[in-house]
Design goal:
CATH class: Mainly Beta
Strand content: 35-45%
Largest sheet: 11 strands, mixed
Distance between the termini: 54 Å
Helix content: 10-25%
Number of domains: 1
Oligomer: single chain
Order of helices and strands: HEEEEEEEEHEEEEEEEHH
Strand order of the largest sheet: 11-12-13-14-1-4-5-6-7-8-15
Length: 230
């Protein structure tokens, strides 16, 4: 058998392209689905990456998409933008210093996804995976990591003492996402991260003071660096 060390020596020389959706569902331990205010607790999460390393993930509730968040990372521009199109808001992160989109690929074993274990013969919708299990006192997390998708979890089962969350893949592809996922429309209102998070809730949210302070300091620092580079 080929060792993981040998198998991991061949590394991708450019960012992988892929696009897939995860359907997240929440269950009680008896198998019944969890609902909130009469609505099924179910989400969809999009992951996609194009050839220049730009990456998008987007999450929305299947019963109410008003609070969908699109997180777009542009390493060649050195910025990341969180967008809530329904509210017309965005938050911009990053110093504006371009990054090497292949940095992670040069420092990660993409054959074993850093686990030291080679993918088996089984596949999930045609894509090989590395299966891992992590346990703690509070939860058990089973992950199926796909080398073809930047070693992201293509399937996950998270079990706690109270519930089970399952992420199942929909239509995984090694093709890049549609360019529309990376379009940041003019007219979006720039908001600080605390105000942005508040705008996603129908009721006031109280964030831990130290966490909010650190988040704001990071946001203002990034903003200051971008202004210097203009």
């Amino acid at each position: 058998m080929q060792s993981s060390a040998t198998a991991g020596t061949t590394k991708p020389l450019k960012p992988l392209t892929y696009f897939f959706t995860l359907e997240e569902s929440l269950y009680n331990l008896d198998g019944s689905k969890i609902t909130y205010e009469g609505r099924e607790a179910a989400w969809e999460i999009v992951h996609g990456q194009r050839a220049d390393g730009a990456h998008v993930n987007m999450m929305w509730n299947k019963s109410d998409s008003r609070h969908a968040i699109r997180h777009v990372d542009f390493p060649n521009k050195g910025i990341t933008i969180d967008v809530n199109a329904a509210n017309g808001n965005k938050t911009t992160w990053g110093t504006g210093v371009p990054e090497d989109a292949t940095f992670r690929m040069k420092h990660t074993d993409y054959i074993t996804c850093g686990t030291g274990n080679l993918p088996g013969k089984d596949t999930i919708q045609g894509f090989k995976f590395v299966h891992t299990v992590r346990k703690s006192d509070q939860e058990v997390r089973e992950s199926w990591l796909a080398p073809a998708f930047d070693c992201r979890e293509i399937r996950t089962v998270l079990t706690t003492t109270a519930s089970r969350t399952i992420f199942e893949p929909l239509f995984p592809s090694d093709k890049p996402p549609d360019d529309s996922y990376f379009v940041i429309k003019d007219g979006l209102k720039e908001m600080d991260p605390i105000a942005f998070r508040q705008s996603l809730s129908d009721t006031p949210v109280q964030f831990p003071a130290s966490w909010a302070e650190n988040l704001m300091q990071s946001y203002e620092s990034d903003k200051s660096e971008r202004i210097k580079r203009q």
